[in-house]
């Protein structure tokens, strides 16, 4: 995934789902059985369960439009 600590690469805005998709794609490329689960665990570790739950809820609301 792009955006390791200390790098100068510009990351997509948080909440768009692009960061999540990038991690999931990277996990799939690495052979993960469930790449979305890998991305969710990484997000929970980085942002915490409460913040990830809020981001997921926002994504579900956006998808429902």
Structural descriptors:
65 residues; mainly alpha; 3 helices
Describe the structure.
The protein is an all-alpha fold. It is 63% helix and 0% strand. The chain contains three helices and no strands. The radius of gyration is 12 Å and the shape is globular.
Task: Sum this structure up briefly.
The chain has 65 residues and is mainly α.
Q: Structural class given helices, strands, pairing?
A: mainly alpha
Order of helices and strands: HHH
Radius of gyration: 12 Å
Please tell me the overall pLDDT. 90
Kindly state the percentage of residues in helix.
55-70%
Low-pLDDT sequence parts? none
Amino- and carboxy-terminal Cα gap = 29 Å
Q: Biggest β-sheet: count, sense, barrel?
A: none
Helix count from the secondary structure assignment: 3
Shape: globular
Number of strands: 0
User: Beta-strand level of the residues, as a percent range?
Assistant: under 5%
């Amino acid at each position: 995934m792009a955006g390791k600590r200390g790098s100068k690469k510009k990351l997509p805005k948080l909440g768009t789902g692009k960061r999540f998709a990038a991690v999931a794609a990277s996990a799939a490329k690495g052979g993960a059985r469930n790449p979305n689960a890998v991305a969710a665990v990484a997000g929970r570790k980085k942002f915490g369960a409460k913040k990830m739950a809020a981001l997921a809820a926002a994504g579900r609301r956006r998808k429902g439009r």
